[in-house]
Amino acid sequence: xxxxxxxxxxxxxxxxxxxxxxxxxxxxxxxxxxxxxxxxxxxxxxxxxxxxxxxxxxxxxxxxxxxxxxxxxxxxxxxxxxxxxxxxxxxxxxxxxxxxxxxxxxxxxxxxxxxxxxxxxxxxxxxxxxxxxxxxxxxxxxxxxxxxxxxxxxxxxxxxxxxxxxxxxxxxxxxxxxxxxxxxxxxxxxxxxxxxxxxxxxxxxxxxxxxxxxxxxxxxxxxxxxxxxxxxxxxxxx
Length: 238
Hints:
two-stranded antiparallel ribbon; 11 helices; globular
């Protein structure tokens, strides 16, 4: 599906419903940045996919903001490479390329491994969030819900970065995860790609809880190497 016209209208209605649910937060903050965060979350959670066109009027109404404020939000997301503006077509959700994959994984190795190295000093709640994401992934796998498996994987990596207790790193990871969800759309069924990594997430979480941070970092770095190659192979076949 590449445009709003080719999408299931119920799917885009779901997106508009999610935007409306977040409307009060956007209105109270009076912030284009907050509206951008809401739209970004729709990408991260897999509701907005590569190639989808974003019509301004219904989105602005759903968020309860002016079109000018929405345009500020869209411009921010374009700068983040999550959206792009195409002449005569408007604003679309971006479609990452193989070079994008390589660059994203360079950033992930630095950020995720660095944050995991701080895991020994992280709060019990932060470490618990990592395990909760593993449990979420296992439950989604058992239910055969590929999209939920993909979302649980996003939550796992977000929780890894949250171990550092840095809002700036959390914000940077949010951008990377949105791009990653678009990358994953190129690999075929979400369950086929993500399911093999659920158990590997569990191993990293177990090493973290056991305090074996060095082994956890090594497992994560190997995981990221394998995932990058997996994705690049899928892109080559596409």
